[in-house]
Structure prediction request, 700 residues.
Amino acid sequence: MKKNPTILDIAREAGVSKSTVSRILNNAENVSPGTRKRVLEVMLKHRYRPNFFARGLGGRRTGVVGVVVTDITNPFYSVLVRGIEDVCRVYRYNIYLCNTDGREEEEKIHIDSLMERKVDGVILASTMLTEHSLADLLERDVKLVLVARLPEDHSSFNFVVVDNVMGGYLAAKHLITLGHERIAYIAGPWLSSPNLDRFAGFRRALGEVGLGVDEKDIVQGDFKMESGYLAGMKLAKSLSSRPSAVFAANDAMAVGAKEAFSELGMDVPHDMSVVGFDDIPLGALRCVQLTTVSQSIYDQGAISGKTLIERILHPDKGGIQQIVLPPKLVVRKTCARVPTREKRGERSGT
Amino acid sequence: MKKNPTILDIAREAGVSKSTVSRILNNAENVSPGTRKRVLEVMLKHRYRPNFFARGLGGRRTGVVGVVVTDITNPFYSVLVRGIEDVCRVYRYNIYLCNTDGREEEEKIHIDSLMERKVDGVILASTMLTEHSLADLLERDVKLVLVARLPEDHSSFNFVVVDNVMGGYLAAKHLITLGHERIAYIAGPWLSSPNLDRFAGFRRALGEVGLGVDEKDIVQGDFKMESGYLAGMKLAKSLSSRPSAVFAANDAMAVGAKEAFSELGMDVPHDMSVVGFDDIPLGALRCVQLTTVSQSIYDQGAISGKTLIERILHPDKGGIQQIVLPPKLVVRKTCARVPTREKRGERSGT
DNA sequence: TCCATTTATGGTACCGCTACCATTATAAGC
DNA sequence: GCTTATAATGGTAGCGGTACCATAAATGGA
Prediction:
């Protein structure tokens, strides 16, 4: 028989009609066991696979979802995508991968392309879109799950995030417990909800013990390692008086900062404590040992994948799904008890 | 008009036939400029996008390629995929991403799924398949490009690889120049062509100066960091007499080994020199500074993507494309000149 | 036994697009 | 002016499935 048998070829060889074969493909009832067995055998014999496009043409599910991330090269997203892929596999779903580099324009182009390819749903990690653009998407009846970053008004979307406020709080609390009173913050872009929330939690913890954050101790970064390095340099070089600890809005920047400190001959943690956020694999490296706030990235991927596909498979079952995961403090070796007042005095005059 | 206009809707509104609209979609000639403009305007007005499935049903190109990697979480593959994705974007191609975890069975399942979805081509990174299974694929007229790892007989496939033999040679040469005479090798799986070739080059360089590799100095790993750590431990603990340098078949293992050495109080590079292979971002970290052999992973991705799509777009133009990229030694800070004979004598008795 | 109901199957009209052929309008050649 | 290319368009049959209706056979209750 020809290389790519069609449903008609199978039907003919099994001596039934296309309809019957179609029924078997879709495990409909009302097919006698004998017929089913016979047809199945013919299918197996010819390695028959129904044509994906012919199926999709009917306007039904395609078994494909789109995954839009900032940059797969970033370990945060690669772990996330891995989580998504793993659950997709069990549902026999495929994923289209798209990188945006954080550019809204790219994101829109990719989404258009995904729509054109009639994906059943889309997972948007760290979306740059406003709730307005997103709502637009929903109207074109694509299932949608947001991960890691939310638009301002996210009340009507499915999402999976960590409790960033809680995470920031945990980080600050840890440093406070170690006696730190002046803690710097290496920020991500202020448009980004994770940055905003982490800072809010951080500030709250400080506020609870009567501390505050001086504006001088907030250094702007962009979530990338290099910006953390630069921020670390800046912080370290304010020699007359500097903080004894720093909380970075993510691990990449925390590692960058730590490198800056080491390079300047400072000892982490004794001269400067560092806390990050994310718990990327790199932080666990024996030469890094970063104390950080873990947000189980893989789980977020897996959960968002599962949420999306369940929503696709059972569109009417259940309303909006909004999942907020608890963060967890992971204590490694970049934080130390603050030096006694005298010792600190010798060094920084604070 | 309805949410998803069809070619017929556009045709009607523009006062032409489906055929004419179809011609314009496929930029065929034989359409008068006036008509073309009018139809284009109607399309734009309704944000018309031709239905992907209806198009694919005709048995033509789908604009999708499959990318099969071992594990996207591994920085080698995420950089590779990024390279692929970037060129796909300019061709307006989408990619399906698949992870196999290096399991042949998974790889086959994924490939079947890709075939079913009628991808125009497939990029197989580090394939576990034999030339036999691969040839099978070619017969189903899928365009194929292999990256990073080749089956034994690869004469009939398109591929993009680095010159691994040359890379191994470069690494060894560097160590030899620094005076090392006993160099250990942390191996990847012996079924893997990169491992085999790197070892071959390594051995050749040693042979050229009359040196050899003792079997005791070859430690088995699996390309993952943990196995490198274990290997490093094993190497370091042969206290009576140990090599002065180690070449690891990839960076992940090199970093793992380095960590083991540091943990045991050895000083890298002065007690032990380490060279890796790949040049993953992690190696550039200030606290790692791994001397390694760079194989421009991103470029490999970009080149393999371009090769694949060009092959799809112009199937008859040109034969098999086999690209072997030159590796480059990247000297950072994990190698030192070998201690003088007396000093080494104190330590290891060699 | 007969009619109603259920169960198993066949027939066919789409889904939205492209390929190919048919048709017309226009230009060119003599 | 009439024939013959050439350009611009329309008409329609698939591509390989699914959905829905029709039919035939089997079952069952009165």
